[in-house]
Amino acid sequence: MKKEIRKIDIEILTGIHIGAGNDAVQIGGVDSSVIKDPISSLPYIPGSSIKGKIRCLLETEGGYSEKSDTINDYFGPTSEYLKTKKDAKEFEQKPTRLLFRDLGLSDKDKEKFRSGEVTTEFKTEIVIDRSKGTAKDGGLRSIERVPPSVKFIGEVLIRYFDGELENIINVLNQGIELLNNDYLGGSGSRGYGAVKVTLT
Q1: What is the count of structural domains for the chain?
Q2: Which range marks the domain in which residue 29 is found?
């Protein structure tokens, strides 16, 4: 099996929220914070977030089913997929082809965050009481987002056998194209998470 590393860049076009999952919300605090590196306190994008989104888009819009051999070979087999193969004598589980590393801020944006030139933004949202047409009691919430123009950089490790590399990259590029016409993270229907993803 051979290996090749490709660089993946993500430019944020509209504020993005990939949540950290708050266990307790402090009074006056943010209801939903973005995930940050525990050492540097800088935001990052987990590799699992982009991998899962690309896989989902390929399955829902790219013409691949959840039980596709291609998708399960490239992104890793699901338990449901493996159940369908348990009686297939010729089936041999193969190594996952695509490994997505976490994406960190570009060096330029790291410096901007550290100097305070760029910070995360806090968007206040309300929940509407449908019967009254007014803000619902307790319906005020604050969402932390990474602002537009920030760039994240990471890597995709491609593991392949002879004759596979071109098709793996084609499928990955198809998924990236779908993502560039969709959104990453939460609240995409409210304008969050438009991104420009580039693979080089």
Answers
A1: 1
A2: 2-199
Give the rounded distance of the alpha carbon of 3 from its chain centre: 23
Confidence of residue 21 (pLDDT cuts 50, 70, 90): low
User: Where does residue 176 rank: exposed (0-12), middle (13-18), buried (19+ CB within 10 A)?
Assistant: buried
Cβ count near 173 (within 10 Å): 12
Query: In 6-163, which residue ranges form alpha helices assigned H by DSSP?
Result: 47-60, 69-75, 79-85, 107-115
Q: Average pLDDT of 2-24?
A: 86
Strand, coil or helix: what is 99? strand
The type of residue at 132 is K
Q: pLDDT per residue over 135-177, tens digit each?
A: 676 667 788 999 999 999 999 999 999 999 999 999 999 999 9
53 or 25: which leads in pLDDT: 53
The DSSP call for residue 13 is S
- Tokens linked to 65: 């089913």
Distance (Å) of CA 56 to CA 15, 48, 63, 75: 21, 12, 11, 10
* Distances, alpha carbon 18 to alpha carbons 115, 177, 193, in Å: 23, 20, 9
